Amino acid sequence: MIQVGNVRLTAQWRRFGGDEGVDLQIHVQQNGTWREAIRFDCFLRHPHYHLDPYGHERILDIADPDPLGWSLKQIETQLPELLAKAGYANVEIEQDELTAAFPKIVEMAEAANR
């Protein structure tokens, strides 16, 4: 788990519904409670991501042939925008802190990719 401000990122290998792959979860803290805001399911057969998985969930396909690389790029360059699309525009994240933590985020994701 890596924390950047009020955002926590985790990575694990996940099997679900006959598919499997790296699962990147982004949790945000609001009012003292942690909530999953975004989940990238970098599955082998049907890669996709969820915005607000436990609220007003939206599931979007990942069309890139490298779903893990694509997901990491989204985290690196689009995280505030993705949080806003997931309904968490009020969660601030310092880009400098995210940039500093990004190599560890990549390392964590690669370790989960067995």
Task: Give the distance, in angstroms, between the N- and C-terminal Cα atoms.
Answer: 17 Å
Q: Note the overall shape.
A: globular
- What share of the residues does DSSP label as strand, in percent? 35-45%
Rg computed from alpha carbons, rounded to a whole number of angstroms: 13 Å
Classify the helix fraction into a percent range: 25-40%
Mean pLDDT over all positions: 95
SS summary, helix count: 2
Topology pattern, helix = H, strand = E: EEEEEEHH
Q: Give the number of domains.
A: 1
Largest sheet: 6 strands, antiparallel
Q: Please state how the strands of the largest beta sheet are arranged side by side.
A: 1-2-3-4-5-6
Low-confidence stretches: none
Structural class: alpha+beta
Number of strands: 6
Describe what is shown at a glance:
With 114 residues, the chain is α+β, with helices and mostly antiparallel strands. It has helices spanning 67-85, 95-112; strands at residues 2-4, 7-16, 19-30, 33-43, 48-51, 58-61. A 6-stranded antiparallel β-sheet has the order 1-2-3-4-5-6, with helices on one face.
